[in-house]
Design brief:
The complex is a heterodimer of chains A (207) and B (80). Chain A is mostly helical and 207 residues long. Chain A contains 6 helices and no strands. Helix content of chain A is 65%, strand content 0%. The longest helix of chain A is centred in the first third of the chain and has 36 residues, at 38-73. The longest helix of chain B has 38 residues, at 38-75. Chain B is rod-shaped, with a radius of gyration of 19 Å. The chains are: A mainly alpha (207), B mainly alpha (80).
């Protein structure tokens, strides 16, 4: 019989106790106790029936739990209960979704910060807000000492033949710097616009 | 722990049975020497059945537990 008999006997006794409790509760009505001192018997039977029912139910539950634990330990029942397995599957699915989310839909805040990090070095202006850097000027605009040797050779002035050339002897006019299209402020405003757009898109999706 | 509580439950069922057998005489709704009333007869019968079942179940469960303990000791390798 083994351990099965142990659990079965416990379960059987608990069920028998439940039946006895029901019988005790119903017996006074079934037999119609009357007479002197029978009120005491009715009270005793009802009280004992209720107590027995509670004890039997608890015992039954305990034997069921003990048996299930043994079956689980022996590998006959699955290691986890159905509810626990469902909870674990839900948690696993949530974890997978969290891992897949960055690959699918980019996080707006992260995109903006990446964009800002990429644009910041481009916006660095070491020479001043409006003055173009030497690299941005054409070779003709640069001073001769700033030119590369090959550029100096390419920009040798043509021989002057006429008086009109003398007009060009005037002192070199300062180079008028080109205004940068955009600049730091423009980039910042573009970034803010992009941020607004992403927030708007997010709200639209939420709707 | 659960097994011990379950065993205790069986012991309580046995105790309730014993109480049912004794109740008519303890509460005096069955006078001594008088013919037995229906209530007393019923309580003693139900109590006796319950006590017998509770005792049998308790002993069977206890025997199973002891058998398991013996089996566990038998599985442990003997120290050299």
């Amino acid at each position: 019989m083994g351990s099965v008999g142990r659990y079965l006997s416990g379960l059987c006794v608990a069920i028998l106790g439940l039946c006895a409790a029901g019988w005790l509760a119903l017996a006074p009505m079934a037999f119609g106790y009357r007479g002197n001192g029978q009120q005491k018997a009715v009270l005793t039977d009802r009280a004992t029936g209720v107590g027995l029912a509670v004890v039997s139910l608890v015992t039954l539950a305990l034997w069921v739990i003990a048996w299930r634990r043994t079956l689980r330990a022996d590998g006959i029942l699955p290691g986890t209960s159905r509810r626990q397995a469902r909870r674990e599957a839900r948690a696993r699915r949530r974890r997978e979704r969290d891992v897949e989310a960055p690959a699918g839909v980019p996080d707006p805040a992260r995109v903006l910060s990446d964009l800002r990090a990429l644009l910041t070095p481009l916006l660095a202006e070491p020479t001043g807000p409006d003055e173009p850097t030497p690299d941005e000027r054409t070779p003709d605009e640069r001073a001769p000492d700033e030119r590369a040797p090959d550029e100096q050779a390419a920009c040798v002035p043509a021989p002057r033949n006429g008086p009109e050339d003398e007009a060009e002897d005037e002192p070199a006019r300062p180079v008028v710097p080109h205004a940068r299209s955009g600049g730091l402020a423009a980039m910042e405003s573009m970034l803010a616009g992009a941020e607004l757009l992403m927030v708007g898109v997010g709200e639209e999706e939420a709707w | 722990m659960v097994s011990r509580l379950a065993l205790a439950g069986l012991a309580v069922i046995f105790a309730i049975g014993a109480w049912l057998v004794a109740a008519p005489f303890v509460l005096r709704y069955q006078p001594a020497g008088a013919p037995w009333t229906g209530a007393a007869r019923l309580d003693v019968a139900v109590g006796a059945a319950l006590a017998a079942a509770g005792l049998a179940g308790f002993l069977a469960a206890l025997a199973g537990q002891v058998r398991e303990l013996y089996a566990q000791v038998g599985n442990v390798p003997e120290p050299e």
